[in-house]
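Entry 14. Ran structure prediction on the chain below.
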Amino acid sequence: MAKTDQTIPEDILAMSFEASLSELESVVQKLESGQVSLEDSIDMYTRGTQLKQHCEARLSDAQARIEKVVISGDSIKTEPANID
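Output, structure tokens:
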């Protein structure tokens, strides 16, 4: 995520996945309405792109942390999930 940290504002980096997704949905709705000026549309598109990058990074982090429980005989162990 370090590469995208340079382009994503701190306020977005501090957001949860759910908050980021909610704001992204709001941005998309406003852009789709066609009621936004060109300059505002460009600013909103830029923020939407940053929100999308943040959401993707949060999902990637979550995927990396997911483990599946493998019951093997009397012991229970965990191993990384293969979600591809």
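The CA atoms of residues 10 and 50 lie 11 Å apart. Will compare against last week's run tomorrow.
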